[in-house]
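Objective 1b. Sequence-to-structure analysis of ABC transporter ATP-binding protein.
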Amino acid sequence: MIELQDVVVAYDTRVILDHINLTIPDGETLVILGGSGSGKSTLLRLLIGLQRPTSGKIFVDGTEITSLNEEEFNKVRLKMGMVFQYSALFDSMTVGENVAFGLNQHSYKSKDEIKAIVAERLDWVGLGGYEDYMPSELSGGMKKRVSLARAIAQDAKFILYDEPSSGLDPITSGTISMLIKGMQSRLGCTSIVVTHDMQSAFYVADRIALLDKGRFIEVSSAEEFKHSTNKKVQQFINGKAEELTISARGV
Ligand SMILES: Nc1ncnc2c1ncn2[C@@H]1O[C@H](COP(=O)(O)OP(=O)(O)OP(=O)(O)O)[C@@H](O)[C@H]1O
């Protein structure tokens, strides 16, 4: 379970996340929506420890992570896989080396075991046999799939996706959405998906949360979200997100 308690992120007087409270139960796929600059990526960065909140607490599996040192946090990070917006593959490494990266760094598995895991994970994302390709030889959608294979290489319990369908055509986006859903049922993991893609959001989400002015103005099941009477939710669904202000107080 992930729990955010009264989390604030502020840059000087500019408040990006304004006393956020949220509980994400195990096994849930939560989609986070919000206008550009509303703090979605900031939220993901908090969860993987790339940033600390100005105040508030964050619990991952019962461990309060904001006060951990780097070494302690690395243990928590092993439970997390992140699929970055631009895939963030190492261009000088093969696909196989990219997927194996975390395993080589943090596990005590033999070379043969790692090779078998890499082959299996690539197979799961439909890229079986691509170990020796270089990232430059892959399409954007394939890179995203390699990034997903890397995120799940260590049996992550929590998978965080930062705009997994950005820059992809609708069909490839659909494939990525299917993979997100597939990983959830295969691994029973908890997924947090930041996206602007409403079709994908409704397809993958158990719950959807909408960030506006530094707060969640709606957190509800995908079905309830679709039929919400909140004007801003409907504006967002219908592509009129411009009325959602970019950030919170102090701007
Ligand atoms: N180091 C920083 N210093 C000052 N402001 C920052 C810093 N990092 C982020 N911000 C501000 O925080 C706000 C939230 O940024 P964030 O990247 O989380 O937004 P986002 O919702 O993911 O946006 P997008 O959908 O465009 O990716 C933005 O207004 C950004 O300018």
